[in-house]
What does this fold into?
Amino acid sequence: MDLRQACDRCHDKKLRCPRPPGSLCCSRCTKANVTCVFSPPTRPLRYPVNHNHNNGGISFDWPDLMVLEQQQQQQQQQGQQGQQTPSQVFETQPQTISDRLTAVLCGLDRMLQSVPSSLDMHHISRQYLRDYADNVGDTFDLQSILDGLLHHAQDLASLYPEATSASINKRATAPESDAACTIPDCIHQDRTSLHTTPLPKLDHALLNLLMACHIRLLDIMDTLAEHGQMCAFMVATLPPDYDPKFAVPEIRVGSFIAPTNTAATMLISVLLELQRALVGRVKDMSAVVAQARDHPGAAREARVISLQCEILQERAEATLGELTKFKDGLIMTRVLKIR
It folds into this structure.
């Protein structure tokens, strides 16, 4: 199959694709911890246009950031564009909700593996504390991690409603189909012995995949929060003239480029908003699952999924609370600035 010379992400940004010979992934996608996809020239780009990686920075459209449903509509419109031959349609079938969730889970899992444990920061001689604070960010690419974390969190929040809706089996059972039949002398009356066991009312595989993405996102958030708390502790023990460095992606609002210190505050605020949105998504999923309890034969499986949703919601709320206290503490100690 004829593929582009540049991956979808580089092609979208009109950048040279730095793929080493013999490698399946270009170095730019590897650094950003995203899937590197080479599509046919006639294939619509997989990446939403709102994923902006100009010069390693992030251009946030603040109203759209809070209205995550617009991303879902853009993805659906993008998949409907273009005229294709039957062979092209077969080769470029649209991604299912499971495909997109799997891509999110794989990206988050790679990110988690690239973040070292914060336990190494707990054993440092005080005489080397300043040098360690200056070089602590060299152990991993924090900018790429934060960049990818924001995009994956946005993707997950936008996929939540679609996945929740798709997890409810809306197919009619054989008895329901027979009861609605109006054909005189229909053959269904002679095939009652052929009725098979219907599919479960709840799609366990899809729901567990959705929750796995959210759990992995919380794993990364909790790990980064541990690093942040330890860094804040080190700064508090250093002399007052110590100026902490913030390895955060560049944030643009129109033509305004936020200073590094302010960008760190804005970044934490955006992460908090995304966490609040995801807590709301879990509550919505719990409500949908609860409705299945009254369906014949679905009460037990609904109780199992409801318990999983309850555990996930408790952890998501705990992570949100810790992140909120972390931000307030940094502002109170003047490590971060509100303006």
